[in-house]
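Example record

The entry below shows one chain as it appears in the dataset: sequence first, then structure tokens.
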Amino acid sequence: MNKDFIKNQRFLVSALIILIVSINIAVIFINLNIFNSIEKLNNHWFENTSINLQRATHLTEIERSFGYGGLIHNFKNYIIRRTDIYEKNVESNYLALSLAVENLRNITTDEEALKQIKHISTTIEEYWDKFNYVKNSNISQYLVYEIDEKVRVDDSNAIASLIKLRENLLPSVIKPFHHSKEKTQHIYELLLWALVISLPILIGSTLVTIYTLLKNNAIISESRTVINACPDGIIYANSQGKILRSNIAAQNLFGYSEKEFLQITIEDLIPKASKSRHQAY
């Protein structure tokens, strides 16, 4: 029976080792895939979202500095009133617009978008030229409507370009979200596969471990019963002489309980006359 048990135990241990190795390989493989997917998702999100946020920021600055309350508004008020406050406002709007347009152009690669940016830039420069014309010319003899006719700027193309840029920006902002959703779904599927693969293996290895422990416990109990049934005294000790186990016959022979045996050594059971020879042995 012991031979069969040892054979079965070796088989179970081998199976357990295979299961553990399989778990480790599966977990490592899936974790590498998850890490790779997360890294790609992070890179894609950073590259696209960062550029789109910059584009949206520059475009917002252009709209704010160009439209109502911006260059067009202050330019027309300067034509009418010719005050220092509107002069400074126009100059401030022009500088802000020039910087925002240049920044937007630097991060734009689409040819159609670059054309729209050029329309906006051309209109801004036209406003600036007309502003300097009024500022540096003696046109006090003209009526306001006459000056307005001279410096009128057709900004319809620039406004249309702004609207077009804004419309094209929304899909480019939404696109990374869709990509992120797809990548997140892929990561979720990998995690699900990890669960599907590892759970049966973990359950199987747990059952094998429990079975092995129960068998070992049965063998230990059986061995203890056999040893205690032996009429001769039996004592197990380690290489230092410390007693590890004893049977009932040995306990009756020496008058020690099982717990008391665990607190002494083999030398404590040997007569003093023979103790030194036993230690040397």
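Notes for this example: The CA atoms of residues 63 and 162 lie 7 Å apart. Residues 156-229 form the longest helix (74 residues).
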